[in-house]
Task: inverse folding
């Protein structure tokens, strides 16, 4: 109803479709995110870009502040963690970025001891 109680004319309806620049990236860890010291661990990061998006696009794989691998205008990056050590345990992050959008996925990696500390 309008201010004077009259019924206002029906507004025009428009459907607006908003497309994502890219999907949320996915991080995969093989053979598992729970490994033992000296195991090799393959970490991959995949981001699916919208085919209609023509801007710059980057995939970044990092652990903490350390960048492990990066690819520009590619939808896949991988990193091989050779002979894992206890201090390789942590949060590994997969990021997909453009100039205006950033999305991420993360996984914890746990590296267990191969041998326990001997006691006397």
Result:
């Amino acid at each position: 109803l309008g201010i004077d109680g009259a019924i206002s004319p029906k507004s025009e309806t428009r459907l607006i479709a908003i497309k994502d620049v890219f999907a949320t990236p996915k991080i995969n860890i093989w053979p598992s995110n729970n490994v033992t010291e000296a195991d090799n661990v393959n970490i991959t990061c995949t981001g699916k870009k919208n085919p209609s998006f023509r801007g710059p696009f980057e995939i970044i794989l990092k652990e903490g502040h350390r960048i492990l691998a990066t690819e520009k205008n590619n939808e896949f990056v991988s990193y091989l963690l050779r002979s894992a050590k206890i201090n390789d345990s942590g949060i590994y992050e997969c990021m997909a970025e453009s100039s205006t959008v950033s999305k991420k996925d993360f996984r914890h990696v746990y590296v267990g001891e191969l041998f326990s500390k001997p006691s006397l």
